[in-house]
Amino acid sequence: MDAANPVVELKQITKRFSGIVANDSISLKLHKGEIHALLGENGAGKSTLMNILFGLYQPDEGSIEIKGKPVSIDNPNKAIELGIGMVHQHFKLVQPFTVTENIILGMEPKKLGFHLDYKTATAKIKSLSDQYGLKVDPNSKVSEISVGMQQRVEILKTLYRGADILIFDEPTAVLTPQEITDLMSIMRRLVDEGKSIILITHKLKEIMHISDAVTIIRRGKVVDTLKTSETNPNTLAEKMVGRNVSFKIDKKAATPGEAILEVRDLMLKNKEGVSVLDGLSLDVRAGEILGVAGVDGNGQSELIEALTGLRKVDSGSVTMKGLDLTNRTPRFVSEQGVSHIPEDRHKHGLVLDFSMSENMVLETYYKAPFNKGGFLNQQEIDKQAKKLIEAFDVRTPSIETKARSLSGGNQQKAIIAREIDKKPELLIAAQPTRGLDVGAIEFVQQQLISQRDQGKAVILISFELDEIMNVADRIVVIYEGRIVGEVLPEQTNDQELGLMMSGSTSGGKQHE
Amino acid sequence: MNKLMKIFTLDSIIIPVVAVIFGLIVGAVIMLAGGYDPILAYSSLFTSVFGDSYGFGETIREITPLIMTGLAVAFAFRAGLFNIGAEGQFLIGMTAASIIGIKITGLPALIHAPLAIIAGGLCGGLWAGIVGYLKAKRGVNEVIVSIMLNWTALYFSNYIVRTFLLQEGQQKSVDIQPTASISLQGLSMLMDNARMHMGTLLAVLAAVFFYIYMWKSKQGYELRAVGHNPNAAEYAGMNVKGNIVKAMFISGVFAGLGGAFQVLGVFHYQDIFTGSPGIGFDGIAVALIGMNHPFGTIMGAALFGTLTSGSSGMSFGAGVPPEIIRIVIGSIIFFIAAQGIVRWVLKPLYLKRKKEKVL
């Protein structure tokens, strides 16, 4: 098929949600053997569009053509029938099942009407896996294989169902750099074998690296469709955000002072008796940003919880300026000058059903002037909220608005405002830019740097290597509950960090 | 006044009102299907409640304990807990008030009655506190524990009455000392011997306390934070477990006080119950109708009490079985729970109003 005959053509798709236009007459053409990237900020309408293509939503206006034939896709089964497969960002796998069991789930091949024919299924999966170089063992349990492998199981699932149009929804969010490289070559292989791919992402590097064409969506409208070879990251970012963005963060060299926080030999076992923190030690100095790099699930969350008093450790110590903070309550820790931008802003950072003003005093409500003889001083609370919202440019209709109705970026700004206003000695920022768009990311990172410049100690825990490389002054790598290496950002690269993050200790040395 | 208006935002008042109207319509349809005259039925219900001072007084008597158990359920709900055990806490409150009211003698009324009330509230609170403690320390679901404790409370109360307070040859306790009574004799006389008592006033004050405590105090802020998002509350340094126990305790105090009012103001003795009196369970419905707001709860209790108290008048005047009223109440709860239906019906109205605003 040539350019004249796209495999998927979306024509003037419009979708409205109670007054909001999520997709405003979007048109998109996907050609056979092409990787077409769909680029846009959060809330730009990418997911809505793909959910329409996958049959989860119905468009209000417009039409869809698959291989030249107009179709109406009213449910995901119809989409699968048409050869559309979706690799979700959050895997939909049954953990205790084997790869084969997961893949055939819902369309089990049967012998004699009821007997499950695993043999045929396993053989088919094996041959599919070999054909596309996926290297998946059909008999291993999903709970025992890595995240990267689980994603391949998801890919196999779509292939097993005969998909030749694959939608990848933010596929690299959970992968290590090596796994990302592997995924890229798998995607190449898939298109070489005649599949077509739509890649949803907001990572420009990946788009430049892998895609053939890119469609940029902003506020539900197509801004432009370009050939990847004829564009560059700056142009793409500008089109995505609608203004000029700088990638390089301006920052002066750090001037670290004495150590503010000393963490020694933290040990913690989880309920199953597995060591999640395994003799972890680190120091953070005044006036520096310490980046903690690592793949999700290597003890980052537990480290944060141990530092902030949310979880008790089995042994080891946390000392801040000579004061023992080990296993103290969150309030005690907070009162010693520790601020915490939590990993999950909905779970820990905000009470979503509280108003903005109530949220702005979440940790200080019990102190004067907000607490006056056991009663809330609403006037002072409102004043505080107004002050913070103004200073940090939190876009909210009013201070009475519930935190739930704000966008992710504004929620995060509000949390940062609250945490920085506590004037901390130590700021712990866990995944502070997760799910934010380019503009908000810039703001958040600037705030961290400005804290550093004021002589505060900052810990930045992130799964995004770019962020760690750009923002941190010193990087430690966490792997299986230990610090396995320490490097300086200007003396390392993604490759080295990636290797350290996956457990091969070829990088800097600190841990034996 | 402006603030008061804010509490009763348009939505939060329109939905229950429409749900009540729908409920009455459902009741009417069922009456029609059964061959009864709904208009006569509702008018005789109305007359029996508002027609004479006795009916009106007895309706208020009916409403009072419902306010208390409704507040109990609503309070726990605001802290993220489902207190289905108001029934048991109510019974324990009754029993405690009976013990103090019967066994203690020689106190002046000014001390005896308050003492009995406090005992009722305190014991109801402690009873609910068991639930809170088990939930906070052991992670046991509060619904299961409180249901079990309802039965425990029923048989425990019966045991106490039978063993210590029994009136010879009867299935009830002896009467409380006159000094422990909170009946308002003068008012009752004026109301044709309807059983009026101080508890009604205290119930309204309890609702005011609820409002101020929950939305104006530091402790209420904590309770609400824990209720909405225990993780964030913990992150913010609040004592989540302590707050769960506290919320259940205060919730139980409301229910226990309700029980105490019933003994000290209405009956002046305590029955040996064959089954649970059900006022605590009705409190769940009342809180739901009142959308877990203290002032809404008063209105919910007023509605519930009016319908219940008027149902006998309705059966007398129109021959409609009083159980029909339970159908009406059930439908009202249904329409409140399924708010989507009400909003859907009201949608054209909203749109019209918006258009007018634009013009």
Automatic annotation (TrEMBL), chain A:
Key words of the record: ATP-binding, Cell membrane, Membrane, Nucleotide-binding, Repeat, Translocase, Transport
Name of protein: Heme ABC transporter ATP-binding protein
Ranges where the ABC transporter domain occurs: 8-244, 261-505
Topology with respect to the bilayer: Peripheral membrane protein
Keyword Magnesium assigned: no
A Pfam family: ABC_tran
GO cellular component: plasma membrane
Family statement drawn from the similarity comment of this UniProt entry: Belongs to the ABC transporter superfamily.
PANTHER family: CARBOHYDRATE TRANSPORT ATP-BINDING PROTEIN MG119-RELATED, GUANOSINE IMPORT ATP-BINDING PROTEIN NUPO
GO molecular function, one term: ATP hydrolysis activity
Organism: Paenibacillus antarcticus
Compartment(s) where it occurs, according to its Swiss-Prot or TrEMBL record: Cell membrane
InterPro entries noted in UniProt: AAA+_ATPase, ABC_carbohydrate_import_ATPase, ABC_transporter-like_ATP-bd, ABC_transporter-like_CS, P-loop_NTPase
From TrEMBL, chain B:
Transmembrane segments: 12-33, 63-84, 90-110, 115-134, 140-161, 196-214, 247-267, 324-346
Record GO terms (molecular function): transmembrane transporter activity
One Gene Ontology CC term in the entry: plasma membrane
Membrane topology recorded in Swiss-Prot or TrEMBL: Multi-pass membrane protein
Major localisation: membrane
Entry keyword Transmembrane: yes
InterPro entries with a match to the protein in the record: ABC_transp_permease
Keywords tagged on the record: Cell membrane, Membrane, Transmembrane, Transmembrane helix
Subcellular location: Cell membrane
Keyword GTP-binding: no
Pfam families named in the record: BPD_transp_2
PANTHER family according to UniProt: ABC TRANSPORTER, PERMEASE PROTEIN (PTHR47089), GUANOSINE ABC TRANSPORTER PERMEASE PROTEIN NUPP (PTHR47089:SF1)
Protein name: Branched-chain amino acid ABC transporter permease
